[in-house]
Amino acid sequence: MIWLGAIIVLLTFAAIIKRYETRMVLFVSGLLMALLSGKPLEAIDAFGKAMVNPTLVTVICTVMGFAYVMKLTKCDAHLVHLLAGGLTKFRAVLIPGTVIITFAINIALPSAAGCAAAVGAIMIPALIGAGVHPAIAGSAVLAGTWGSTLSPGATHNPFVAKLANTDVMTVIAVLTPADLAALAVVVITLTAVAYIRKEHHVEGQSVIDGNDLGEFKVNIIKAMVPIVPLVLLVLGSKQVQVIPEVTVPQAMLFGVILGFVVTWVNAQEISKQFFAGMGDAFGSVVGIIVAAAVFNEGMKLIGLTGALIEAMKHSESIAKLAATFGPFIIAVLSGSGDAATLAFNGAITPHAAQFGFGIIEMGQQAQVVGALGRSMSPVAGAAIVCAGLAKVNPIELTKRNAPAMVLAAITTMLVLL
């Protein structure tokens, strides 16, 4: 059954690569594995739970609704022209700058999908407007969505700190050099991929709504409106706490209201566009996440996820490779690094000294490679969000991010273990 599940997974990714309808492929594959396990209703239950996920659904739908309003009011065009007009003078920093900015914001906003939605709504259109290929624009944001590994609010940092009988900030301090080295590798590698593929600048693309960047009259106030929700989220985060905590839906709705106040566009049209954006987001972006939930549940029911984790647990003789590529591979396949990382850290990391490693080093290695694997997975929520904003297939982001994430995982292994 496990081998049959593995074949189905391979065929699933092959179908996605060949650009068959992603939602259909993921749903059918997951349901097929669930049927073979004799528990098809559990896959259907996963479908229902994902539809009403209180975190992802509210975040993604309100962000997309906000994006539609910004397009209606043309506030996004003012921001895009402002950023593109300045950044095009320093084209070399467009891609690396986006990765670094996203990474830094993800420390304050630990949710990968939430960060991807909030930052991507601003930076992806800006990059595309500046002439960067849409797939690279989406990849640049996705490539920074593992900054949460340095967040005190991330699940794994307190977990590893408890295992090592120390405080969270000590755990983060140990990881920081490895994370920064890996970030440099990601930035350099993704930028190189963009230049090799000649996607760092697409001729004729740096024109928005038929207007040349130099001729568009930028209104600074309108240009700032799309940034306000992001600023509120950062200032209200647990790590900053300059203002009371602000949720993503709250920030986006405030941005919609501010857009109306600044532009005085017909309120009825703003309402229509906001809810149109929410509907489109649910059908396209959330739809893929729901289908991916069925796929992940199918992998679990047929025993494939458990087998992968067990194989990783029993690789004690090659603990270094297991700590690196076990969570990484499972994260790529499932779109989440949490399950594999927690399983590894619960079973293997307490015995790190027997392998010649420190508990903090081994535990943090498992955490960071799980996050890196997720940042190249075509079924991860953050990848789906970025792909939706860039209007490309998620697999296109995987193809561009894979070299950077693999090299970064190896880099952290060399630094930590």
What does this structure look like?
By secondary structure, the protein is mainly alpha-helical. It has one domain. It is built from 20 helices and 2 strands. Strands 1-2 form a two-stranded antiparallel ribbon. Helix 2 packs parallel to helix 14, helix 10 runs parallel beside helix 18 and helix 17 runs antiparallel to helix 18. The longest helix has about 35 residues. About 55% of the residues are buried. About 0% of the residues have low confidence.
Total strands: the figure is 2
Distance between the termini: 35 Å
Walk across the major sheet and give the strand order: 1-2
Number of helices: 20
Largest sheet: 2 strands, antiparallel
Structural class based on helices, strands and sheet pairing: mainly alpha
One letter per element, helices H and strands E, the order comes to HHHHHHHHHHEEHHHHHHHHHH
Organism: Sporomusa sphaeroides DSM 2875
Main location: membrane
Transmembrane segments: 50-70, 90-109, 121-148, 168-196, 216-236, 248-267, 274-295
Keywords: Cell membrane, Membrane, Transmembrane, Transmembrane helix, Transport
